[in-house]
Design goal:
The chain has 229 residues and is of the alpha+beta class. It contains 3 helices and 12 strands. Strand 3 and strand 4 form a beta hairpin. The protein starts with 16 loop residues before the first helix and ends in a 20-residue tail after the last strand.
Length: 229
Amino acid sequence: MAQQATPPNRFYPRENIPTMQNAIARLILPLRWEEPTYGRREESVNTLVSAIQSNVSQLEKMNPTERPAASPLIDGQWKVMWASSRPQWIQQLPLAGQRITHLFDLSSINRSGTYKQKLRLAFLLAAEVEGECSALGGDHLHLIFGGKLRISLLGITIARRDVEVSDLDHSLQLTFLDGDTLILRAPPVCAGSTVLRPERTYLLSRLRHAFWQPTPEEEPTKPSWLPDA
């Protein structure tokens, strides 16, 4: 069963949220440079992962947002800081990079829209899976994926391939949401008593809100051949 969101309580005051977020960030940093299944530090990596999981559980108890699935805070682009496991479609891709993002667009009145998981590849390539997303209750999102992986070059589709649907997330529970951090838990996928994929946890950091606009310094330089407005 997926872990249920725990309401804030007096033992985990919300004022401690920045401290806990910084503690998790320090634990994650070594994992960005080493895969748990490679090298000689597997035992120390497992210790770090256990500490991250413990701190993530504590952070969930400080969740400042009621009914996060209905909140516009979720809309926008989020970067994966840590995940308990990577989806198979990412593991099977050659030239896979480290930057994985989640994109939510639930701007309709009934809080439904699209959800993407996107991976940056080498040579300006990107891969993504996209599905329909709708809010269920206060902290759950229902997902329906098309079962296709899209590979693009500079945003232009160059290939599509099938993905294993059983490994994709079919629902997400939002256990923590504020302006900077989002924690998602995807319940296990089972066939009867057989677990096809265990529960998956994502710790995300905001990249852009849905209403993000570049500052004048971030705007691309206008080509010299364009006339002035």
